[in-house]
Amino acid sequence: MIRAFRLSAWTVLVVFTAVFFYIAAGLIGAVLIVPGAPVTEQTDHRIGLISGPIHYDFLLPLTPRLRQGLEFARASGVPVDDPAAEWLIVGWGARGFYTSTATLADMELPILWRAAVGDDAVMRLDLAGRIENYDGIDLVALTKPEAERLEDVILTYIADPNALPLPGFTLTDAFFPAKGHFNLIATCNAWVGAVMRAARLPFGRWTPFPQSIRLSLYWSGLSARG
Questions:
Q1: The pTM is what?
Q2: Pairing state of beta strands 119-128 and 137-142?
Q3: Fewer CB atoms near the end CB (10 Å): N or C, the chain?
Q4: 3-state DSSP call for residue 88?
C-alpha cells in the first residue's frame, strides 16, 4: 500500500515536472527571436493574426495576386472571387481535432489525445468580408516582399489541392491535406511561428501556445508595426 502510494506520488511529480518544463520552454522559446530580413521598404501591407483560446489563424488580404494563387481553392468550392470577400483566413492543425472541433464545447478526449501524440495535418481556408472591429486580431504591417513571401510560404503547406470530403464550419470554408504532422511539439501555434520565420520575419524559435505567439509579436517588434 505504502509502495503503491509512493509510486503514485512519483508519477504525479514526474508529470507535473514535465508539464512545467513544457510550458516554460514554450514561453522561453517565444522570446528567443530569430532575426528577420532587413526592412528596406515601406510597411504598407497589413496582415492579421486571429487569436482564439488555443489557436491562431492567419488573416491575409485577398489581393489579386493571392486570389490568383488560390485556383485550387476556387476549384474546391471556396468562393475566392466573391467581391464581398476581402480576407482569407488560414489555419493549420491536427486532422481529427481541427475538423471536428468548431468550439471548445465540441472537444472530445479521444480526439484530443490523438492530436497530442500525433496526427496528420490539415489546413482550413475560409473567407471574411469587411472587418469593422479588430478585437481579437493582432495586426502587423509588412513590406510588399514580406507579405508576398508570407503568402507563398503558407501555400506551400498545401499537400493536396483537392479539399477533403468533410463538412466545414461555415458556408465558405474547406479543409485541405497539409504538409507536416501535428503533435505536442509541432502545434498549430508552432506552425504559425515556423511560417513567420520561413517568410524571413523576426519571430520566436518555438511558439507552441497562443501566449507564445503574443510574446513573439511583442519581443520581435512586429506588434509595434501594427
A1: 0.91
A2: unpaired
A3: N
A4: strand
